[in-house]
Write a structure and sequence with these properties.
about 150 residues; 5 helices; mainly alpha; transmembrane helix; Integral membrane protein; transmembrane
Length: about 150
């Protein structure tokens, strides 16, 4: 059995930071009586943080590295899309949520395409990673519908 190392790249570092921020938001939600604080905390941790960490770890194991320009597009798109979704949620603006969700869908599709080379590894973790991305891609339109309510 070999040990695999996981490096700290921009994806994993950014994801870890979002998990911490989500935890801080969760801690402040009750005392500050933030109406949408628990939603924001969960979004920051799960969609913003954990998903970004998974992307970073998986991309470190691709047969060929993701080109730096593509990583920049992924990270900047991820940041913009998630900020727009969170603003839309906090402002109860379904139009803003939809714009952010469409941007997020584009980034997720690009990320899935960049990671599809993992299929050749026939690894359970590779399939799990692509399944997680697929679940996020399917969840975005569901979030759009829920945001419109």
């Amino acid at each position: 059995m070999t040990t695999r190392q996981i490096g700290i790249d921009a994806h994993t570092a950014g994801g870890a930071a979002l998990v911490v921020v989500g935890g801080l938001v969760a801690a402040a939600t009750g005392p500050l009586d933030l109406e949408k604080g628990s939603w924001l905390a969960a979004y920051l941790v799960l969609v913003g943080g954990v998903a970004l960490i998974a992307i970073g770890i998986a991309q470190q194991h691709l047969p060929t590295p993701v080109p730096v320009p593509l990583q920049i597009v992924q990270l900047s798109g991820w940041a913009v899309a998630n900020v727009v979704v969170m603003l839309g949620g906090l402002l109860s603006s379904s139009v803003t949520i939809n714009v952010g969700a469409v941007l997020l869908l584009l980034v997720l599709a690009l990320t899935w395409w960049a990671g599809h080379g993992l299929i050749r590894t026939r690894s359970v973790l590779a399939y799990a990673y692509l399944a997680i991305l697929t679940i996020l891609i399917v969840s975005a339109p569901i979030g759009m519908v829920l945001g419109a309510r």
